[in-house]
Design a protein that fits this description.
alpha+beta, Rossmann fold, D-amino Acid Aminotransferase, Chain A, domain 1, Dna Ligase, domain 1, 3 domains, 6-stranded antiparallel β-sheet, 4-stranded antiparallel β-sheet, 13 strands
C-alpha cells in the first residue's frame, strides 16, 4: 500500500441515527455503552489522530449525505452503516452513492458487498475455486420448505443475507424435516429474508481478519471459545453469544488466538483467506468465518466485509496481536480508502 502523509483530514462518519455516540460514556449503563461501542471507539480514535470529525446519522434519506459532502467537503467518509431503510442489503447502495458523489470512503466496495452478502452466491464462487464449504440449499420466501435431497441432518438454518448472527439460536440446528420446516418459517416471518440451510459442522469456530486492497495482510487466526456452555448446547455463534455480555460472562465465551494448529493447517488457513478475499472481490477490511472439523477439515462459512471493529472485538484484537495497535488500525483503514481512490 502506498504510504500516505499523516495529515489532518475532514472525516464524515456515517452510522445509524440510534448509534450516535456521546462525548463520553460516563453515566451510561453497560448495556447502552456496549450498543454504541464501535461508533464511540471510531469517532474518539479519529479525533485522537487529529482529524476533524463530523458524525451523520443515516436511516432512510440520501439527501443529508449529499448535503454534508457538498457543504463540508470531507476528504473521506468513514462508513459504519450496516443497513439503509432497515434493510441490510441496501448498505451497498449507500456505498455506490458515495462513488457517484466521487468521495473517498472506508471499507468494502459495493460489488464486494453484494457478492459477500449473498451467502449462497459466495459459497458457489469459492466452491468453484475448490474451497470446501458445507453443502447447502436455499428456501425462498413464499415456498414451503421440502427436505432437500442429498443434504443430511443435522442442518443449521440461517438468514440468507443478514449478518451479526441475526435469527441464529440453538433452535437453528434441526435434525428432522418437521423442525426444518418450522425454522425456515421462523426466518421467513421473523427475520423477513430467504433462508439457507446448510450441513452443520461440529467443530471449532475460526475467524480470520484480512485487510488491504490489491495487497492484503492476513491477521493472526482467531477462535471463538466456549468454556461453560449449558449441557446439550452446540458451540455456535448465536445472537446472544455475539451480542449479550452477560451471557458471554456467564458461559465463558471468549475470542482469543487459535491454539494447537499445526504449521501446515495455519498456512492453509492464511492462504485460503487471502484467496477468498480476492475471489469475492473484497477490499478495505473483512473477516472470513470458518468451521474447523475435528479431523482438521476446514469449511468456509461466510465472509463479512466491514466487520465489527470496536477496540475490544476480535478484528482489532487480532490486528493488535499482529503489531497494529488500534490507533494505527483506524488510520490504516482510512489510508486504504484514500489509496483506493487514488488508484482508480
Amino acid at each position: 500500500m502506498t504510504k500516505l502523509p499523516q495529515k489532518k483530514l475532514r472525516v464524515l462518519v456515517l452510522m445509524h441515527p440510534s448509534l450516535l455516540p456521546p462525548e463520553t460514556l460516563d453515566g451510561l449503563s453497560e448495556k447502552d455503552a456496549y450498543a454504541i461501542k464501535t461508533e464511540y471507539d471510531i469517532v474518539t480514535t479519529l479525533r485522537r489522530l487529529g482529524h476533524e470529525v463530523q458524525v451523520l446519522g443515516v436511516q432512510d434519506e440520501l439527501t443529508p449525505i449529499r448535503s454534508a459532502v457538498t457543504e463540508w467537503k470531507p476528504q473521506i467518509v468513514f462508513n459504519l452503516l450496516e443497513e439503509f431503510h432497515g434493510i441490510a442489503e441496501f448498505d451497498q447502495h449507500v456505498v455506490a452513492y458515495l462513488e457517484l458523489l466521487q468521495v473517498c470512503y472506508t471499507g468494502c466496495n459495493p460489488g464486494g458487498l453484494v457478492i459477500a452478502r449473498g451467502k449462497a452466491l459466495s459459497k458457489k464462487l469459492v466452491t468453484y475455486h475448490r474451497i470446501r464449504t458445507p453443502t447447502f440449499t436455499v428456501f425462498p420466501r413464499g415456498r414451503r420448505p421440502r427436505p432437500p435431497r442429498g443434504l443430511r441432518f443435522p442442518l443449521i438454518v440461517k438468514s440468507l443475507t443478514e449478518e451479526s448472527s441475526l435469527g441464529i439460536s440453538q433452535a437453528s440446528i434441526v435434525d428432522t424435516p418437521e423442525k426444518l420446516e418450522e425454522r425456515v418459517a421462523f426466518i421467513h416471518k421473523s427475520v423477513g429474508t430467504d433462508a439457507i440451510a446448510e450441513q452443520y459442522i461440529e467443530g471449532r469456530e475460526i475467524y480470520v481478519g484480512v485487510i488491504g486492497n490489491q495487497r492484503v495482510q492476513v491477521l493472526p487466526i482467531w477462535e471463538l471459545e466456549f468454556s461453560n456452555l449449558p449441557p446439550g448446547s452446540a458451540a455456535i455463534a448465536t445472537a446472544r453469544v455475539k451480542h449479550n455480555p452477560d451471557y458471554q460472562h456467564k458461559h465463558g465465551i471468549n475470542d482469543s488466538p487459535a491454539k494447537n494448529l499445526s504449521a501446515a493447517l495455519e498456512s492453509q488457513i492464511v492462504r485460503t483467506s487471502r484467496r477468498i478475499f480476492k475471489i469475492l472481490e473484497l477490499d478495505g477490511y473483512a473477516r472470513i468465518d470458518y468451521r474447523l472439523a475435528p479431523d482438521g477439515t476446514l469449511y468456509f462459512l461466510e465472509a463479512n466485509p466491514n466487520p465489527e471493529i470496536a477496540e475490544n472485538e476480535e478484528f482489532a484484537s487480532a490486528a493488535k496481536s499482529a503489531g497494529i495497535p488500534y490507533l494505527k488500525l483506524v488510520q490504516k483503514i482510512v489510508n486504504l480508502g484514500l489509496c483506493r481512490a487514488r488508484a482508480s
